[in-house]
Give the backbone structure.
Amino acid sequence: MNQAQTDHQHSRSDQTGDRETDRHQEADQLNKLSNGHPRDHATLTLSNGVPANDGSDEKTKPPSDTIANADSDSHHDCQHCHHVGDKVKEYIWIDSKPKEVSTETRPREDVIIRSIRPAPITIKRKPFLAKPDSKLRNAGTARAYMAATEEKPYGTTHRDWARNHSHQTVLQQHCDFFDTDHDGIIWPQDTFWGFHKLGFGIILSLVAVFVIHANFSYPTLPTWLPDPFFRVYIVNIHKDKHGSDSGTYDHEGRFVPQKFMDIFEKYADGRDYVTLWDVSNMMKGQRCIADPIGWGGAFFEWLATYLMLWPEDGRMMKEDIRGIYDGSLFYKIAARRASNKAYGYE
């Protein structure tokens, strides 16, 4: 063997040793980042695409050519991936054993991690994630006049509601029922008769007038001077947004599908209805610190919702709640009650 071949073999041996050293150093760093328990909460991947292994079980090392899809967090709590050219290598640890996910090429920014085990609350309350074939696109983007959900991606289409109210934000649509003459101003008597048409008695309707106009009138006024009549101006209704709510309305009165769907995903285990217990958990979960106005507002709104729907089985359906957000359900309830009254059922 000549000198050149000997030098080349020594060079390859040194490079292999350096790569092995780098691999162990990187594994040690990843273990430190995860407090020494990498498999307790995530898949840790080395620069060569192989998950970090503490050496306790060499058989748990997956093949280096595994290419995995990141859309599978219904089976695990967290995942990490590694770019290899234009592909993503990813492994999922379940019960200390690697699980290969479906094969697909996907950019790193498409990886969505909804929960991690070191933060148990993120496992308990997982946010909504649209299905791959969902017609609801960009759920986190607020809709100006459509109360869009995965089941109703185009909002309320009954009697062309969304199109006929395309000049109003969803929050303004919510108030439209109470503006009987549609002049953009809600008087206290408008609120009283509106609640009465929805089935509330005289006392509860008076309570609603006091709560709503005492708290929500001034922020909507076009002037700094208080209104002696406590009127509410719909054009400025977005200024009445309070804290400790679901966040379904944004600060401009638009409808955020992601926040609405989160109500059912986080607090109702993905069901299409919520109970009073679910609502109680939601109000606790959404509660902001030092926000008594927001706490009271959220309590009043959900109490009024339950009394208005008054479900016999205690289940407030998602579609009914969505109809309250855009106000379309108010007209249906009022029409149904008026019809029943006309035929002597009330």
Summary: Residues 32-99 have pLDDT under 50 and may be disordered. The first helix runs from residue 3 to 33.
